[in-house]
Amino acid sequence: MVAFLFIQFFKFVNPLRPIKMMNPKVDAFFSNVSRWKEELTFLRRILLDCGLREELKWGNPCYTFQNANVALLHGFKAHCGIGFFKGALLQDSEGILSKPGENTQSSRIMKFTQIQEITALEASLKAYIFEAIEVENAGLQVETEKNPVLKLPVEFEKKLEEDPGFKAAFFALTPGRQRGYNLFFSAPKQSETRESRVEKYRQQILNGKGINDCTCGLSKKMPACDGSHKFFTSRNN
Question: What sign for the dihedral angle of Cα 140, 129, 73, 51?
Answer without folding.
Answer: negative
